[in-house]
Amino acid sequence: MKLVSSFETYDYFRRRVAKDIEEFWICGLRSDRSVIQSACLFRGSVDQCMVHPRDVFRFACLKNASAILVAHNHPVGDPTPSIEDNDVTRCLMTIAQVIQIPLLDHIILGKNSYYSYSDKRIIRL
C-alpha cells in the first residue's frame, strides 16, 4: 500500500486509531511511499497524549524508513491543532531535517474530518 496524499493517509490511520482516547501513530515508508510498518507509539487520555520525538525517530531508524508520516486523533472530534500539536510538529520537522528522514505529514483526525500540516504548507518538502 502506498500513501501519496493526505486523504489516503487520513483513511489509513482512521481505521487504526482509537476513538475514545488520544493516540499518536507513526508510519514508516519506503522511498516509493509504500508502507513498511505502522505503530501506535503513545496512548494518552481523552484530551492529551505525551509524545517523545526520540521514540518517533527510533521507530523510523529501526524500520529503516526513508520517510515517516505521523498522526494522532482528537477524541472530541475537532481536528484543529492545539499549541502543543504545533510545537510537537515543529520539533519533529527540525529533527527530521537533521537526521534526513523526512516527515511527510502530520495528520490530526477528527470525528469526520482531518487536518493536514502538509496541506496547510506547514510541512514542506
Tell me what the structure shows.
The chain has about 120 residues and is of the alpha+beta class. The protein is about 30% helix and about 25% strand. It has helices at about 5-15, 55-60, 85-100; strands spanning about 25-30, 35-45, 65-75, 105-110, 115. A five-stranded mixed sheet has the order 2-1-3-4-5, sandwiched between helices. The longest helix has 17 residues, at about 85-100. The protein is globular. The mean pLDDT is about 95.
Set out the fold topology.
Elements: H1 6-14, E1 23-29, E2 35-43, H2 53-62, E3 67-73, H3 83-99, E4 103-109, E5 114-116
Parallel strand pairs: 3-4
Antiparallel strand pairs: 1-2, 1-3, 4-5
Helix-strand pattern, N to C? HEEHEHEE
CATH architecture: 3-Layer(aba) Sandwich
The low-confidence runs, each spanning 5 or more residues with pLDDT under 50, are: none
CATH topology: Cytidine Deaminase, domain 2
Helix content: 25-40%
Give the percentage of residues in beta strands. 25-35%
N- and C-termini, Cα separation: 21 Å
CATH superfamily: Cytidine Deaminase, domain 2
**How is the largest sheet built, in terms of strand order?**
2-1-3-4-5
Please count the beta strands (DSSP E, at least 2 residues each).
5
Any idea what the shape is? globular
Radius of gyration: 13 Å
Q: Provide the domain count.
A: 1
Given helix and strand content, the structural type is alpha+beta
- Continuous helix count: 3
Q: Sketch the major β-sheet.
A: 5 strands, mixed
